Amino acid sequence: MIIINKMSKLFEKRIVFENVDFSLKEGASYAIVGKSGVGKTTFLNILGGLENPTSGKVLIDDVEVNEKNLPNLRRVKFGFIFQNFGLIDNETVRENLLIGLANQNLSQHEKDVAIKKVLKELDLGNLELNQKIYTLSGGEQQRVALARIILKKAKIIFADEPTGSLDSENSNLILRHLLTDFGRDATILIATHSPEVWQKCDYVIKIKNQKSELIKNSNRRINEV
């Protein structure tokens, strides 16, 4: 469970959001929504330990997200997907995916088997493991990024506009894999401006006028975002 306890964020004297105070269920999906510049990415980054709150705290299974605990949280629980994919462009598909297996006691053969299996499940079975990342299309790169998260077996996935630079076909593919096929056992948090994304999530976290509201998703409430 993720507990957000009286979390506030200020940039200089500007309040981004204040006194956020609610809990997020394990295994549910959450879309963080709001107008451009409202603080969606900042909210996501604080939960994932990429930024610090001005006040308040975030707890993951009763462990505070802070400088002391972050290395272990990132190694064991966290997975990140970014709009720019977060891959190492001049490395191969294999080298990027081996990062997701870094903490698993597997032989090189077992790692290659796991990599080929997940690539096939993500409709990337035709990729050569020695291909450089920069030779792949945007949709292929985002699926490789998702494959790395799946291999890591991340318990909490933080995704910042994961479909923002993709066409409709690739966006739908990423969302299906993320929210349905592979994300069923993970807690998923997605910062997004896209109705096509937030309509597929279990809950919406709406940021407006420096406040945040946790909404159980439904077609009626979605229209209010």
Task: Characterise the protein shown here.
The strands form two sheets. Strands 6-7-8-3-9-10 form a six-stranded mixed beta sheet, sandwiched between helices. It is an alpha/beta fold and 225 residues long. It folds into two domains: 1-77 and 155-225, P-loop containing nucleotide triphosphate hydrolases (Rossmann fold), CATH 3.40.50; 88-154. It has helices at 40-47, 70-76, 93-98, 108-121, 138-152, 168-181, 195-198, 219-222; strands at 2-11, 14-24, 29-33, 55-60, 63-64, 78-82, 156-160, 187-191, 203-208, 211-216. The two termini are 25 Å apart. The longest helix is centred in the middle third of the chain and has 15 residues, at 138-152.
Tell me the number of helical segments per DSSP (H or I, 4 or more residues long).
8
Identify the strand order in the major beta sheet. 6-7-8-3-9-10
Number of domains: 2
Q: What would CATH call the homologous superfamily of the largest domain?
A: P-loop containing nucleotide triphosphate hydrolases
Shape, principal axes of CA atoms: globular
Number of strands: 10
From the alpha-carbon coordinates, what is the Rg to the nearest angstrom? 18 Å
Distance between the termini: 25 Å
Q: Mind telling me which CATH architecture of the largest domain this is?
A: 3-Layer(aba) Sandwich
Please report the first level of CATH classification, the CATH class of the largest domain.
Alpha Beta
Q: Return the string of H and E elements.
A: EEEHEEHEHHHEHEHEEH
Low-confidence stretches: none
Helix/strand-derived category reads alpha/beta
The CATH topology annotation of the largest domain reads as Rossmann fold
- Major sheet: 6 strands, mixed
